[in-house]
Automatic annotation (TrEMBL):
Name of the molecule in the record: Transketolase
Enzyme Commission designation: 2.2.1.1
Similarity field: Belongs to the transketolase family.
Source taxonomy: Bacteria, Pseudomonadati, Spirochaetota, Spirochaetia, Spirochaetales
UniProt cross-references to SMART domains, sorted A to Z: Transket_pyr
Length: 335
């Protein structure tokens, strides 16, 4: 993250969105073709930070999300690199036709920063929850999908997206994420997961807000149960890090996925597809929002309600440790 000097202490005082806003400002300092677009949510999504230093490079399209993405496609066609930011629910559903046809089908260089993902805007009600977007976006050809764990990794994702040719979907929360990284330890590369904790008993694969909970759950399991859980931050959902998944299957034979998303179509489904195609079975559990519209409440309370806070993850791990599976060390007889 060249040029950025935020530390874990700074990140604690800034929401995830504020950190990404600073990263975008830094990109604009260095690249004249970077512009920002908003649909009257510059303050809420923090893309307004860009206008503080570059007021002529942030465009407000008004409350017109379809127009927002159509304009971004036009700008990209003209050689600009537009960063478009609005709520995840509006990016992945209200403006889906424009995202599909104007941006992904044309393979245009548009970077979509979708905030308030998952249940992070829990008290706003089910119309503002977004627990389907990863599943929707995974089916868009040409699209890269990144779900950072905290502010530092969000800034890394925003910076890395500039060098990634083609459309990129970066999914953030409302903000105020617990810090997972400081600048010295976040070796962020699109498509390459990060192992946060070593373990040989089972592997917890998480993304977004679930990463911090997964790491804390692993600590509980190690100190209270003697269970050594590997923790993987699978920040890139597409293209997913197949090597890390298959290594975890081989080494631990038990996998739990954790995501702030419907368990259908998101991280858990992506991991399951890799395992199924490999022909290597293991004990497997998906944690996230079940196939339902969420109840309303604070983010932390909702994660606990649906069982993917740190206590829910630890409980699922204990259950998985008691599950039997076929012992087969080399899988030579598998397809």
């Amino acid at each position: 993250m060249a040029g950025l000097t935020y530390t874990i202490l700074d990140a604690t005082n800034m929401s995830t969105a504020e950190v990404y806003g600073k990263a975008l400002e830094h990109l604009a300092d260095n690249y004249d073709n970077v512009v920002g677009l908003t649909a009257d949510l510059a303050k809420s999504t923090k893309i307004g930070v860009l206008a503080e230093k570059h007021p002529d490079r942030l465009y407000n399209m008004g409350i017109a999300e379809q127009n927002l993405f159509g304009v971004a496609a036009g700008m990209a066609s003209a050689g600009l690199v537009p960063y478009v930011s609005t709520f995840a629910i509006f990016t992945s559903m209200r403006a889906l036709d424009q995202v599909h046809t104007d941006i992904c089908y044309q393979n245009l260089n548009v970077k979509m920063i979708a905030t308030h993902g998952g249940l992070s805007f829990g008290q706003a009600g089910s119309t503002h929850h977004c627990t389907e977007d990863i599943g929707i976006m995974r089916t868009m050809a040409n699209l890269t999908i990144v779900v950072p764990a905290d502010g530092i990794s969000a800034a890394e994702a925003v910076t890395a997206a500039y060098s990634k040719e083609g459309p990129v979907y970066i999914r953030l929360n409302r903000g105020y994420d617990q810090p997972v990284y400081d600048t010295s330890e976040c070796d962020f590369q699109i498509g390459k997961s990060i192992e946060l904790a070593e373990g040989s008993d089972l592997t917890i694969i998480a993304c977004g807000a679930a990463v911090y909970r997964a790491r804390e759950a692993a600590s509980i399991l190690r100190n209270s149960d003697g269970i050594h859980a590997r923790v993987i931050d699978m920040h890139t959902i597409k293209p997913i890090d197949r090597d890390a998944i298959l290594k975890a299957v081989h080494d631990t034979r038990r996998i739990i996925t954790v995501e702030d998303h419907n368990i259908i179509g998101g991280l858990g489904s992506a991991v399951a597809e890799v395992m199924a195609e490999s022909g290597k079975a293991c004990a497997f559990k998906r944690l996230g929002v079940p196939d339902t519209f969420s109840i309303i409440g604070l983010h932390e309370d909702l994660m606990a309600h649906y069982g993917f806070d740190m206590n829910g993850i630890a409980s699922a791990a204990r259950e998985l440790m008691n599950r039997d599976f076929e012992e087969d060390d080399d899988w030579d007889d598998e397809l």
